[in-house]
Amino acid sequence: MGSRKRGRWVLVALAVLIVGVVAAGCGGDDDTTSGGSDTGGGNTATAEVQDVELTLPFQDSIVWAGYEIARDRFYEPLGLNVSTNAAEGGSFVIQQLIAGNLDYAVTGTPETIIAAAEGHELVGIANIDSDVFTIAATPDSGVKSVEELKGEALGVTDIGGGEIPLVNAVLASAGLVPNEDVELVVVGPGGPAAARALQTGQVAAYAGAINDFAGIEATGVEFQPILDEEFTNLPNDELVVRREVLDDPETLATVLKIAQGWFEGTLFGNENPDEGLEIVCQMVPEDCRDMDVAQGFFDKTIEIELAPAESGGAHDYAKLKTVVDSIAVKDAPAAANIDLEEVFPNEYAEQIKEAMDGGGS
Asked: Do 124 and 59 fall into the same domain?
């Protein structure tokens, strides 16, 4: 399964000082080749296929299920041949966008908010997924809410894991203090060790990312979510551009097609789960060595991508405000002052949705 820890729901400023230049496809100068069969998306096949590169905060994986399906099935009809450039995490991607080394990329919603709070001109074109991190308990634990974790142990992947900011925010909202009211126990990423901790009662609940839960559930452990609604469906990954791109019609059109194809891939995976998983396993066979885990991971990934895909990547401003408020309380007070509709406009989601519905080329 890859070691990916979906750390994009990070509500702290990550100071990643990595020097380097990441090449990104910007749209205008790429080589083109003939091709493009009309195989998906309801779009007319194009005579020219443009080679572009999309920077992701992590390598090709089931975690990008819609994107992997799009690479196989939907990008060519849109006139794109998309390859992946894997970066060193969401904060590294943000640094490269700010430096002008990238025109567009996928990065974390929280990192984008922090960059905006620092005055950087980045724009979220479309929300890619949400609800990546969660906290859930086993039915046998008797814990049915975060408040009921008082006096119990909560399993985490690592004290510095990507789920920790969510854990801190959720416990604080419930009036609980980590390691005073609730013991945080490191049980590792999803797998046999974490499963044993839950099965033996060492921990009453577990906090982690979708891949962690997929790995544990493959061992037979069942979960029930205990998060309050306020902390569910929080935006996690975002297709982000430098503001200058909005004035570059050619590059912007490429970005919108990247989002459109990704969302069409997600919708296809939801409607055709067996074929969708087969495509993803062809694209990332290393993630499919254990098909039980792969199936669970695929199902959860499609689930967290589905609502954004159905809306063309539209932003939920109430959920964005929850993320902003969490950031502003402790780590970036200036985040409270950003204009969410300016940083995360929905006009591009409307265009993407129109194209997906057959109103665009």
From this structure: yes
